[in-house]
């Protein structure tokens, strides 16, 4: 994602009226899926990744690892090579969001991932500046 795009997002956020912080709660977007044969198709995979501002490949790798199921991205969709319920998939998405998106300090989702070398990833918060190692 380009920094120009992030700048644009920042500008948009600044233009929004400030709400009481306590009433703001980040809602994790829901994945919508259906089973086709022995596969599970996640229809809105890319849209959800966009909302989370995370690389679809990173999210897919998380699913592959946690669910131990081969999968591939096909356009806007994620195809998992096993029958899975929407509940199972969304539970993994919740975990992903807690580990890879939500700031540990201020609990906001305005974060990005930085590579800290040696396969270590850092979650960097754009709201409060906190950095934490991503638990995989
Ligand atoms: Zn923070």
C-alpha geometry = globular
> What is the number of helices?
4
The main sheet comes to: 4 strands, antiparallel
- CATH topology tier name of the largest domain: Defensin A-like
Q: Strands across the major sheet, in which order?
A: 1-2-4-3
> What is the CATH class name of the largest domain?
Alpha Beta
Mean pLDDT: 90
What does this structure look like?
The structure is a single chain. This protein is of the alpha+beta class and about 140 residues long. The chain has 2 domains: about 30-100, 2-Layer Sandwich (Defensin A-like); about 105-135. Helix content is about 35%, strand content about 25%. It contains 4 helices and 7 strands. The strands form 2 sheets. A 4-stranded antiparallel beta sheet has the order 1-2-4-3, covered by helices on one side. It has a 3-stranded antiparallel beta sheet with strand order 5-6-7, with no helix packed on it. Strand 1 (about 35) and strand 2 (about 40) form a beta hairpin. Helix 3 (about 55-65) packs across helix 4. The chain is globular and about 45 Å long. The mean pLDDT is about 90. The chain binds zinc ion.
Question: What would you say about this model in short?
Answer:
With 136 residues, the chain is α+β, with helices and mostly antiparallel strands. The chain has four helices and seven strands, in the order αββααββαβββ.
Features:
136 residues; alpha+beta; Defensin A-like; four-stranded antiparallel β-sheet; three-stranded antiparallel β-sheet; 7 strands; 24% strand; globular; binds zinc ion
Write the layout of secondary structure elements.
Elements: H1 3-15, E1 33-36, E2 39-42, H2 45-52, H3 56-67, E3 71-74, E4 77-80, H4 86-100, E5 111-117, E6 120-125, E7 131-133
Antiparallel strand pairs: 1-2, 2-4, 3-4, 5-6, 6-7
């Amino acid at each position: 994602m380009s920094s120009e795009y992030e700048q644009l997002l920042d500008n948009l956020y600044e233009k929004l009226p400030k709400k009481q912080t306590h009433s703001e709660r980040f809602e994790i977007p829901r994945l919508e899926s259906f089973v086709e044969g022995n596969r599970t198709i996640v229809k809105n995979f890319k849209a959800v990744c966009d909302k989370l501002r995370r690389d679809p490949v990173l999210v897919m790798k998380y699913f592959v690892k946690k669910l131990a199921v081969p999968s591939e991205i096909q356009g806007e969709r994620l195809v998992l090579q096993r029958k899975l319920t929407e509940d199972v998939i969304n539970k993994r998405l919740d975990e992903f969001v807690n580990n890879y998106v939500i700031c540990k300090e201020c609990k906001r989702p305005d974060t990005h991932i930085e590579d800290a070398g040696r396969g270590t990833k850092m979650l960097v918060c754009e709201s409060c500046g906190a950095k934490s190692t991503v638990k995989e």
